[in-house]
User: Fold these one by one.
Assistant:
Number 1:
Amino acid sequence: MPQLRTTIALPMKKLGIPAILVAIFLLVWASCGTPSSPSSTTPPVTPTNTSPPTTAPPAEGELAIHFIDVGQGDAILIDLGETEVLIDGGGKSPGVVAYLQDYVDGALEVMVATHPHADHIGGLIGVLDAFEVDEIWLNGDTSTSETYSQFMSAVNSEGAQVYEARRGDTIQVGGLAFNVLHPVNLSGTTNNNSIVLSLSYGQVDFLFTGDAEQEAEASMLVEGVVPDVEVLKVGHHGSNTASSPDFLAVTGPEVAIYMAGEGNTYGHPHEETIEALLAVGAEIYGTDIHGTIVVTTDGTSYNVQPTNIVSPVTLPATSPTTPSEPDQTSRKLTTSMAVMPSFFIGKAMVVLN
Ligand SMILES: [Zn+2]
């Protein structure tokens, strides 16, 4: 169902229908209300790449999930009224404190550190300094890094309730319940010990994977705990070490969001991951291209609002005359605004049945 925006313009273009008929068709189409149609009430979005997500508090009953652009790293804020949950905080720099100050009212109820790598916990040190944090969930893994030492010092001096997350646990806060799907124990590599969380809000389901790779995915698949979701935070910054076809087939995301720094040295996201996500029909957004991405939902429909108004990620068109070569520098992912009316680009409204 997410192909809606890329399929709109093309048939008309080929048929050469007069403009008036196109307009009539669009009006009729927009009022159909099929599950694969964007909401006809979604207002046009100004096609600029500078409009930030709204800083107003969410409407009552509306859940907002901010996939914050922290360069190469993860930082996800889940905001429901006066309840705020932060999953990871990116690296120490640029830090997420300034961003959070627009949204966190009172204490930060829950902080989750998926695993002790610096691109996930570095920014949490400043958050612990700037905000009162009620609950901290860790995976219990350790690191010899200075960043980890500083983070644990900040955790220990916070006075928060500290928990180790294990499969089967529930993080209950405000009106939200996060299910801990992983880890079972610390038997994997650092990434594969990542805390993986699912969250359902009404009919809209989310999966937050940290840096879990295929080993962790296999563990969850074997136990049958992997949910079908609308929105997937892609594992490990879009690396090909995560997002196995089996895992993506079960999660079946309509929207996939990877978090990676522009021009990062790891080559994230990897082309294989983008191909695999496209193969399951996901509409792909990345913080390296779209900046901070905010998903809002009332539990029935959801809305994806990237800061940079460009189309979802696709693979570059392959030339039939040029054989594919393993040239990393040419494997740049592309987006295109050419095939889409601007008012479909910024807001993807999907109504669920
Ligand atoms: Zn990472």
Note: The pocket of zinc ion is lined by residues 117, 119-120, 211, 237 (CB under 6 Å).
Number 2:
Amino acid sequence: MNNTYTDLVKQTFDFPQEGFDINEDKHLLFNGLDIRKLIDKYGTPFKLTFLPKIGMQVAKAKKLFNDAMKKHRYDGKYYYCYCTKSSHFSFIVEETLKQGVHLETSFAYDIELVKALLKRRKITKDITIICNGFKTRQYTKNIAGLINSGFKNVIPVLDNVQEFEDYKKSIRSKDPVNIGIRIATEEEPTFDFYTSRLGIKVKDVLEFYVDKIKGNSRFQLKMLHFFLNKGIKDDIYYWSELNKVLNLYCQLKKICPELTALNLGGGFPIKHSLGFEFDYGYMVNEIVSTIKNVCKKAKVDVPDLYTEFGSFTVGESGAVIYSILNEKQQNDRETWYMIDSSFITTLPDTWGIGEKFLLLPINGWEREYQEVHLGGLTCDSHDFYTSEEHINAVFLPKIDKAEPLYIGFFHTGAYQDQLAGYGGIKHCMIPSPKHVVVEYDKNGNLEDWLYAKEQSAQSMLKILGYIK
Ligand SMILES: Cc1ncc(COP(=O)(O)O)c(C=O)c1O
């Protein structure tokens, strides 16, 4: 038989590939992990975090930037910051901290998270905390609180000029306080708007610096920040925005020697299909050499480089595993496989913005395949998944009565719980699934543990006011 699911994958992609293989039982291995065994132990549906992937990602980016800096004799440092909003879970943030990263925050409550990390002795007051976002009064107050309590490297990044007034009132520090400015970027012409609502317009930055910051002994401008909605991509928009920011950096640097940092934001892509190709090394090399060349031409020192990768840090550590409950033939051509959860509860980006994730069966690789539609348990007509990143269809093994079919969506570790809300009430009350974490123990063996059980009906009834 040469129309098995294994044949399909091998004819379409290079397989096996980094992170994905099958074992002798024809069961999927995810980073060497036998998912079928976890299914036997925990039952589906469940979310999975494979913690070691986080360290691999951080090490990869650090190496790429440090190698490129060495190659181009770039006289600056690279700082890897983790953007907490992509996954705030303690076991995730603490894993990133083990890799020596710094942090980026987005809202007032993030500062409470930083304080909790200090209390748990996971950080010291020397860590760099980059505070981004449009700030509420509570957020600026909390940031000022961190600085006033002795955190030495907190960098509030101004989203707008008014924000600065808040810090002037609330920060009491003997030493000058470092601040950053976020530059409002232009989006691609295909996007819904031209200029980001976040940040200060490029043409207003110089004037703002000269009028408000220069000569102020309590504050100094240390960082320029920019972030493109579409992420770091080798296209004309990325390079034109980078050059715009670099020109501004060079102009400012001549009158503001304290400006030593350029924050490239987040936006490194991750693998959403076995066909994914992105040359991270080329991209980092081009970024570093472009910055070096522009600064050399302008005769100014190069900046230290900061990134705030969210998806790249945590995305590839996550997966969601489901069983196919039933097959429904709704007309001559459309076969539905019903999953034992909801895409809205577990992968809201697939429902909300049509995001694709890497989908593979856990078993059944020796069976014939067919085109299917995947359906979630809610009554929402959009609770489905019918196309992949590389093809406008979904192919999976046929159902076999001898053994249920299990499937997994991979590289789902960023933003999905934050968007769906972890716990809480859910569409049609489809619960948040259990969450399994896998990591290495002290002896270097993989161990798994249950971070959270499936959400109970009682927890929802309580929120809904049926029980106290
Ligand atoms: C300011 C800022 N930094 C970093 C990130 C992280 O982006 P990503 O998860 O694509 O790396 C975001 C995402 O929205 C952001 O707005």
Note: The chain has a mean pLDDT of 96.
